[in-house]
Amino acid sequence: xxxxxGAGWVAAGLLLGAGACxxxxxxxxxxxxxxxxxxxxPSKSAEDLTDGSYDDVLNAAQLQKLLYLLESTEDPVIIExxxxxxxxxxxFSVNQAIIRELGGIPIVGNKINHSNQSIKEKALNxxxxxxxNVENQIKIKVDSSFLSxxxxxxxxxxxxxxxxxxxxxxxxxxxxxxLAVQPTFTEGSLFFLLxxxxxxxxxxxxxxxxxxxxxxxxxxxxxxx
Length: 225
Hints:
growth regulation, Leucine-rich Repeat Variant, ARM-type_fold, ARM-rpt_dom, two-stranded antiparallel ribbon, globular, membrane, mainly alpha, transmembrane helix, 2 domains, 11 helices
């Protein structure tokens, strides 16, 4: 009795249902494609931040991840990569303060004592960038053994970086040869150590160093000692 008409209604219903499903599919697909086009990416893990492909300046949460990785891993490759990333980010004044507030300065400082020369060098690079901030200088601790890095037999790359560290600390505190600020440096601070007589004698002895670049750097420092 209503066979053909009923079949027509069924066909129409199926067609509408299929159309609705296709619309939902298109909307979902378009949303996903739009997300990709907007550059939405998953959160980076700590190790991802060190792989050299992440060019953005790190925020506080990412810096905290990086410091935790640096403190917890024993893998020399990861340590070196983390120090490079941290050193690059420490070139920005806002991150110099964030790294200090996150307790990162002693974590970086501890890597100076690492047996791996490349890690030692990268730690000094990071510390050099952090040391241009006066408040950070107060937090930098390294013991009297740090002065052994100013010995003439130390590798050139290390010598140049510890000499730069001395320059950074001096330059931060002085304007036109006069003391610009007078922070309180405790006996255990790096400033206190670098401005002692033992350090002055070690730096002066480097004036006879066989490497011209080291010698040139020393000659720019001696008048300030």
